[in-house]
């Protein structure tokens, strides 16, 4: 798993649990984090998965994901992690989104996830998933990670931060991308 983000590694390990795959993270292997120089989720997922696959000789799965807020023209988007600053402080990132939404009535947003499975020979496959919802304030719930406490998915009354992990995994952008990957690569 080409990630140093414990929240993501945990969610992907949960999604992979029915497949008898042993998951080891790039963080545990001490691999350096490649710079995310891509301009799309897909480009960054491919760059991370290929770097880990080439460094280890193992198939590598990378997730590049983020929050796209309609009234902010899709921001923070691929900069979602960077809005937390060098310390990845998501209280600060959530406050920044809320400050930029001040006075706007359109609070629609979506999480987007690009998942890339790469092999050491440079072959890779990418799958994209999404989940729509609205931005809420103040933040609610302590589950999940990142922007989960301020995102309420469509048709639900709880934020991702208030949901049990299983309920989030049933509908999340990551689960949507993962279902497409499983359909193409595992069955
Ligand atoms: P990256 O893909 O590692 O560049 O960072 C993705 C960032 O998007 C995370 O650090 C979170 O801030 C945000 N993000 C992605 N997926 C989720 C999610 O499922 N819940 C909350 N925040 C997320």
Distance between the termini: 20 Å
Question: What's the tally of helices?
Answer: 5
State the strand order across the main sheet: 1-2-3-4
CATH 2nd-level architecture = Alpha-Beta Complex
Structural class designation:
alpha+beta
Task: Write out the distinct hetero groups bound to the structure.
Answer: inosinic acid
Number of domain modules: 1
Shape type = globular
Structure summary, number of beta strands: 4
CATH class: Alpha Beta
Order of helices and strands: HHEHEEEHH
State the share of residues found in helices, binned by percent. 25-40%
Computed Rg: 16 Å
Low-confidence stretches: none
- Write the CATH fold name: Maf protein
Oligomeric state of the chains present here: single chain
Largest sheet features? 4 strands, antiparallel
Set out the fold topology.
Blueprint: H1 6-16, H2 41-56, E1 60-69, H3 90-101, E2 108-118, E3 124-135, E4 151-153, H4 165-171, H5 173-185
Antiparallel strand pairs: 1-2, 2-3, 3-4
The chain binds inosinic acid.
Inosinic acid is lined by residues 5, 36, 64-67, 80-81, 111, 144-148, 160, 172, 174.
Question: In a few lines, what is going on in this structure?
Answer:
By secondary structure, the chain is α+β, with helices and mostly antiparallel strands. Helix content is 32%, strand content 19%. The chain contains 5 helices and 4 strands; from the N terminus they run H-H-E-H-E-E-E-H-H.
């Amino acid at each position: 798993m080409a990630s140093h983000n414990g929240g993501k590694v945990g969610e992907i390990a949960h999604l992979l649990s029915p497949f008898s795959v042993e998951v080891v993270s790039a963080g545990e292997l001490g691999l350096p984090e490649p710079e995310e120089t891509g301009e799309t989720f897909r480009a960054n997922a491919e760059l991370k998965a290929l770097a880990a696959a080439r460094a280890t000789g193992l198939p590598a799965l990378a997730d590049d994901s983020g929050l796209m807020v309609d009234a902010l023209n899709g921001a923070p988007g691929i900069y979602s992690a960077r809005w937390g600053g060098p310390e990845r402080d998501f209280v600060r990132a959530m406050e920044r989104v809320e400050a930029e939404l001040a006075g706007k009535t359109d609070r629609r947003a979506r999480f987007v996830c690009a998942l890339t499975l790469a092999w050491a020979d440079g072959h890779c496959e990418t799958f994209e998933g999404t989940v729509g919802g609205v931005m809420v304030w103040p933040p609610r719930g302590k589950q999940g990670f990142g922007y989960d406490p301020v995102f309420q998915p469509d048709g639900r009354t709880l934020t991702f931060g208030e949901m049990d992990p299983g309920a989030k995994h049933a509908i999340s952008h990551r689960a949507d991308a993962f279902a497409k990957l499983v359909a193409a690569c595992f069955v």
